[in-house]
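Standup notes
- DV: blocked on the single-chain target, sequence here:
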Amino acid sequence: MEKLVERAVVEALGDGGSEAIRLYVAACTERMTPLFMGLRASTPGRESDLDFYAESVRDLWYADRPLAGAAERVRLLEQFPELQPKEEGITDVVDTYAFFAVLTLRYALLAHGWASADDAVSCGHVALTAMGMLDQNVAGASLLAEEQRLQSPSLSSDAAAGLWDASVTAGRERFRAVLGHLPRQSCF
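- DV (later): unblocked, structure below
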C-alpha cells in the first residue's frame, strides 16, 4: 500500500521531537473534527461522546507536554460505535467520515501521549485517505491536495498561530463537502 504522507513529513516527524509530533497530530485532528462533531451532533445518546471528542481535540493543542490520561482516553475512544466491528461494514457516507474522524483522533491520542512518530504518520495517513475518498466522490474537489499542503506547516511551532485557523477553516470545508454529498432526504 502506498504511503500517502510525504516522505519529508515522515522524516520531520521522526527527527522533530515530541512537540513537532504533538502539533502535527493536533492540526490533523482539528481538520477532521467537524466531520465527527457535525455528522454526529444530532445522534441521540452521543452527547457525552461529542463532549469527549471536543475536549480531547482541545487538549491535543497543548503540544508542549504529554497528554494526561492518554491511555484512558484511547480506551474510551475505542468504545465508540465507529470503532466497533460490524458484520456489514461501513455502508454510508455519514458513518464513513465519522469513522475517519474518530480513527484520526485515536492515532492522535496515541502519538501525543507517547510522542510516537509512527502513530503520527498513521494519523496523517487517515486524514489523507479520507480526503482522497472525498475527492473521488465530490466533483471538482481538491481536499487531498489541501491536506497535503497543510501537513508540512503542521510540524512547526513557528506556524502554530495561523495553523489552528487554517485547520478550522479546512475542517469546515470538508464538512460542507460531505454534506453536499449526502442525498437530499438523508437525515442524521
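- Follow-up: The chain is about 70% helix and 0% strand.
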